Amino acid sequence: xxxAYRTSITTHVNGRLYVYGYDLVDLAxxxxxxxxxxxxxKGNMPDKNSxxxxxxxxxxxxxxxxxxxxxVAARNVYSGGSPLQAAVAAGILALGEYHGGAIETAxxxxxxxxxxxxxxxxxxxxxxxxxxxxxxxxxxxxxxxxQKLVSLAKKFGFLGKYVKFALSVEDVLSKGGKKLPxxxxxxxxxxxxxxxxxxxxxxxxFIIARTPGLVAHIIEESLREKPFRRLxxxxxxxxGPRPRK
Length: 245
Ligand SMILES: CC(C)(COP(=O)(O)OP(=O)(O)OC[C@H]1O[C@@H](n2cnc3c(N)ncnc32)[C@H](O)[C@@H]1OP(=O)(O)O)[C@@H](O)C(=O)NCCC(=O)NCCS
Known about the structure:
Layout: E1 10-13, E2 16-19, E3 22-23, H1 24-30, H2 33-42, H3 48-60, H4 69-79, H5 84-93, H6 103-113, H7 118-128, H8 144-156, H9 161-172, E4 174-175, E5 178-179, H10 184-194, H11 201-224
Residues 98-99, 102, 131-138, 175-176, 180, 183-185 line the site of coenzyme A.
């Protein structure tokens, strides 16, 4: 067979839809949204504890205030007069390697260095001068979301080799006296590995979790704010040439 598209996710049989073999209509009645997200990203049903873990992860990342780059981008694009879908897309485009988009890289790192050990990992990164995905935070010395997820991981049976490794790196990681905590991307990476997800899921997982927050911010922007956000001159430092002929 040589058809244009191949998929193993969803099919139609006699007018009904089946996601990985499960009747979608039955899923709508019997499963939570978190469970369905696990199913569609992984191809199998989570057990009770995996469902609870995934649900906590999706919930804890749903929003982080108006300040992060993705929220500012979404609200500003809406404020320029573009429609909601453009503003959501703008917010998602801001989820890069420094903000919400570090999970895939962190998963690859944890897989690579699990057996090589913390010392080798830190040596390699020290030599390359690159930032270690999943560590550091603008405002937290210890990320309360990470702490909560670690305690839930213990409760639900996911405090395994990847979470322990991620924490062992956090224990020794600092820069110029500043602690670089295991951040939400880092703990997501470790937990997704514990649950057997492919690293390719990483970026998408954060997008799925944060999109409801972005939509909420855009709706709030539309209901409460005037169009055309603009920085004032006092927010801007000009250091180019003075007026000249
Ligand atoms: C999240 C992040 C942007 C926050 O940065 P910040 O707290 O403002 O830190 P700064 O950019 O001021 O960096 C301070 C120093 O720490 C270093 N640093 C910060 N995060 C680092 C990391 N993860 N690994 C190694 N060094 C790091 C910087 O290189 C800088 O070093 P320098 O002073 O020698 O130039 C940063 O920690 C980072 O890039 N982390 C990796 C990406 C990541 O996990 N993103 C997800 C965030 S939830």
